[in-house]
């Protein structure tokens, strides 16, 4: 068994274990073959199997059955045997109705999901009786069906269940709910969801138990003043995204959570909710807040009024909000906040005023406020004592305003985080932050500072941890020792307050866009000695690495060169050996031929120059040959060559020696090709030089020795394109000597 198989098996085993599958039971007819079973067959998921009927093999063990997204057209009949079923998901099928006995024997059932079926008629559900057997049913999901209207349900049309807790009717195309309460048969109902219905009327809901009513994304226009009066347990009311809804004063002493965002509310009208804790009223049409607007909401803790059109606030608008902790007034049109306004809310800790028309920080007073957001407010000035009234202020966001000056000695004993990003500040001095002893983080990104700050500015800010200074127009005067000091103050570990790359020069010209360190490096660290240890270490590391790589490379090249040289040498020796053999044969052949008649082919082609060169010569002079043309051809061919070969030719002609190849010569040839070629040429040695010039060998040599090679070699090479063998043959056939001898 190889490794792959082992791994595969292990994985399979693991998967089986993880899924609690029973391998033995997995026959094609088995339930768990068709569906996926978990937790020892108590959870069976048969969703998306294209089923029309229940698969065989389901038994009373099953507690959770998922047969969603199948093709069931009628509710499965034989479910009664699954009397332990707790959760049944039959959503995404084609059910149009339920029989009276559909849930027979399903006494344990708690969750029934019938969403995304084809129910259209409320009566087809048999609402009166269908839930009766399911005495433990808690959740009934009927969303994504098409019930249209729930008006005036007669007694026989009421859904009856004494256990049902949650009824979900989202996306059911219900347009109106009115008349006799649809909830009167549900003694235990707590949650009713009616989201995403084109509901324009919601009337007559009566339930003593209902806690949460969801009617978001409907088309409600009004809710009757007394509507909530019959829902004495209502705690959550969510009616967001009813774009035409105007809420008049509703009364509910139980309501704690209200969401009426994205509606058409002109006035908050929350006075009818004395126990309200959280009110979400953003994205509405509120234009102003009256005096005592929230006087009865004494329990309110969270109020979101952002994204309205609130233009004015009275000093006593928020009177009575003794528990309010969070107030969001962002994205309104508030121009001034009367001085004592915040004092009405003694628990207020977070106030959002972003995106209003406040022009100054003003004299807000609060003993509790710790987080104040006044960003994007067109604020252009801060009063010197503007923070003094905010006795607990910790975090002040003044970003994206028009502030050009911070007064000296603006004071707060508690302020830790001051955000002044994207303003028009151009200078601070050593009195600016003097009176902010707790200052921990200061951000002035995107301002107009040019002069590098001085670390003396922060002499009294011992807790300073963070400075955001990027995106300013710093003028880098590297020679000014203050710049270096401040740079160190800001970037030096372990008290680093800003990343050094965020400090960028904007002037003078020659350093625009460079980081401070980059621009001033040679001024601050004039010699190598002063270069900081980090750089030195880096330099050394880089050098060592470079050296190692170079050595490695050189070694590699050397080795490969050596190998190649050895190969060349071996090849050469082989060739020399061959040449020697050939010469021996030639000589023998010549002797042989001398005895035989001349071959008629002899007359066909004269030998080429090289061939002539490589011919072994007989003692007798070639001048005595009867065929004078041969000599001429030879000469002419020789002449066609460059001058450098002329001497070779002369030499050849003059040299009437027998082509004797001495052993010494051979060994020399194998040793030093070049030297041998330069020596006065004799036929034997020359032959070897030529052999050496086989295309492969030549290429090797060229690359090896380069163009410094003498011209003779080059010339010969040009002639050496033909293979050696045929020439040898021709040589023997073209040879004049036989003819001569023939004479
Ligand atoms: C049933 O299966 C569907 C699709 O596989 C899944 O989305 C759904 O959550 C499952 N229902 C339950 C109750 O697990
Ligand atoms: C109904 O449930 C009981 C157990 O509660 C069981 O004994 C009986 O067989 C079930 N009836 C049917 C028809 O499945
Ligand atoms: C019912 O099924 C639908 C679709 O599968 C799902 O979105 C929904 O959450 C389910 N309802 C409950 C109460 O589980
Ligand atoms: C409630 O608000 C509406 C506008 O949304 C307003 O006309 C009405 O007078 C308010 N009711 C009370 C009692 O203030
Ligand atoms: C405020 O509550 C008091 C009782 O606490 C009640 O008399 C008064 O009518 C309420 N005000 C409004 C505007 O609902
Ligand atoms: C304020 O800064 C100036 C230089 O700009 C310095 O001479 C002076 O001592 C500083 N004062 C304090 C209180 O740090």
UniProtKB/TrEMBL annotation:
Q: What SMART domains does this protein map onto?
A: LRR_BAC (SM00364), LRR_SD22 (SM00365), LRR_TYP (SM00369)
Show which residues constitute the signal peptide. Answer: 1-18
Q: Where is there biased composition of kind Basic and acidic residues?
A: 731-743
Recorded hits in InterPro entries, A to Z, give: Dev_Immune_Receptor (IPR050328), Leu-rich_rpt (IPR001611), Leu-rich_rpt_typical-subtyp (IPR003591), LRR_dom_sf (IPR032675)
Would the keyword Transferase be found if you checked this record's keyword annotation? no
Matching Pfam families? LRR_1, LRR_8
Spans of biased composition, class Polar residues? 617-627
Domain of life, per lineage: Eukaryota
Write out the biased-composition intervals (Basic residues). 632-643, 674-683
- What are the entry keywords? Leucine-rich repeat, Membrane, Repeat, Signal, Transmembrane, Transmembrane helix
Keyword Cell membrane appears in the UniProt entry: no
- Parts of the chain that traverse the membrane: 536-557
Q: Where is this region: Disordered?
A: 591-743
Q: What is this protein called?
A: Insulin-like growth factor-binding protein complex acid labile subunit
Species annotation? Loxostege sticticalis
């Amino acid at each position: 068994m190889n490794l792959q198989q082992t791994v595969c098996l292990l994985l399979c085993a693991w998967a089986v274990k993880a899924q609690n599958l029973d391998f033995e039971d997995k026959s094609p007819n088995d339930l768990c073959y068709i569906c996926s079973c978990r937790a020892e067959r108590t959870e069976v998921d048969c969703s998306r199997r294209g089923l029309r009927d229940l698969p065989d093999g389901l038994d009373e063990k099953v507690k959770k059955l998922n047969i969603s997204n199948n093709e069931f057209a009628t509710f499965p009949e034989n479910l009664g045997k699954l009397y332990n079923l707790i959760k049944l998901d039959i959503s995404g099928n084609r059910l149009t109705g339920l029989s009276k006995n559909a849930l027979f024997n399903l006494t344990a059932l708690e969750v029934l999901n019938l969403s995304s079926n084809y129910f259209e008629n409320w009566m087809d559900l048999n609402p009166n009786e269908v839930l009766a057997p399911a005495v433990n049913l808690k959740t009934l999901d009927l969303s994504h069906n098409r019930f249209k209207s729930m008006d005036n349900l007669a007694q026989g049309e009421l859904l009856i269940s004494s256990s049902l807790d949650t009824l979900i009717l989202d996306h059911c195309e219900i347009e109106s709910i009115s008349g006799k309460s649809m909830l009167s048969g549900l003694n235990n109902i707590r949650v009713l969801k009616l989201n995403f219905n084109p509901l324009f009327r919601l009337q007559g809901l009566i339930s003593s138990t209902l806690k949460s009513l969801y009617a978001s994304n409907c088309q409600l226009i009004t809710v009757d003043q007394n509507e909530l009066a019959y829902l004495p347990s209502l705690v959550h009311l969510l009616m967001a995204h009813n774009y035409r809804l105007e809420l008049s004063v509703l009364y509910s002493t139980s309501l704690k959570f209200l969401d009426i965002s994205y509606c058409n509310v002109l006035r908050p009208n929350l006075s009818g909710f004395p126990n309200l804790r959280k009110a979400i009223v953003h994205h509405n049409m509120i234009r102003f807040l009256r005096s005592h607007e929230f006087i009865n909401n004494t329990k309110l803790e969270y109020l979101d009024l952002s994204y309205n059109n609130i233009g004015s606030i009275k000093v006593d608008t928020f009177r009575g909000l003794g528990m309010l902790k969070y107030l969001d007034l962002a994205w309104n049109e508030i121009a001034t906040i009367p001085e004592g306004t915040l004092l009405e809310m003694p628990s207020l800790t977070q106030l959002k005023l972003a995106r209003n028309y406040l022009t100054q920080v003003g004299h807000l007073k609060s003993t509790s406020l710790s987080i104040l957001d006044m960003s994007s407010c067109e604020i252009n000035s801060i009063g010197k004592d503007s923070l003094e009234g905010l006795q607990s202020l910790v975090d002040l966001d003044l970003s994206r305003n028009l502030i050009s000056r911070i007064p000296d000695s603006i004071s707060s004993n508690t302020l830790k985080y001051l955000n002044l990003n994207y303003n028009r500040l151009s200078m601070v001095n050593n009195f600016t932050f003097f009176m902010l002893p707790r200052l921990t983080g200061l951000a002035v990104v995107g301002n107009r500072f040019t002069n590098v700050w001085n670390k003396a500015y922060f002499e009294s800010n011992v807790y300073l941890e963070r400075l955001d200074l990027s995106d300013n127009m710093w003028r880098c005067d590297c020679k000014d020792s203050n710049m270096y000091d401040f740079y160190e103050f800001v970037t030096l570990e372990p008290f680093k307050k800003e990343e050094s790359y965020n400090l960028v020069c904007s002037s003078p010209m020659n350093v625009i866009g460079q980081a401070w360190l980059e621009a001033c490096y040679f001024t601050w660290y004039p010699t190598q000695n002063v270069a900081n240890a980090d750089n030195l270490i880096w330099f050394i590391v880089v050098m060592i690495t470079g050296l190692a790589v170079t050595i490695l490379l050189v070694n590699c090249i050397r080795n490969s060169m050596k190998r190649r040289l050895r190969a060349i040498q071996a090849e050469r020796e082989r060739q020399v050996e061959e040449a020697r053999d050939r010469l021996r044969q030639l000589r023998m052949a010549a002797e042989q031929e001398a005895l035989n008649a001349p071959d008629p082919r002899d007359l066909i082609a004269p030998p080429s120059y090289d061939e002539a060169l490589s011919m072994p010569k007989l003692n007798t002079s070639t001048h005595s040959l009867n065929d004078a043309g041969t000599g001429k051809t030879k000469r002419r061919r020789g002449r066609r060559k460059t001058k450098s070969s002329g001497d070779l030719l002369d030499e050849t002609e003059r040299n009437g020696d027998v082509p004797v190849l001495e052993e010494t010569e051979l060994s020399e040839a194998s040793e030093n090709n070049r030297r041998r070629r330069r020596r006065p040429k004799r036929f034997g040695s020359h032959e070897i030089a030529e052999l050496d010039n086989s295309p492969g060998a030549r290429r090797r040599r060229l690359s090896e020795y380069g163009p410094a090679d003498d011209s003779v070699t080059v010339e010969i090479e040009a002639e050496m394109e033909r293979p050696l063998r045929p020439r040898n043959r021709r040589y023997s056939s073209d040879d004049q000597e036989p003819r001569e001898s023939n004479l």
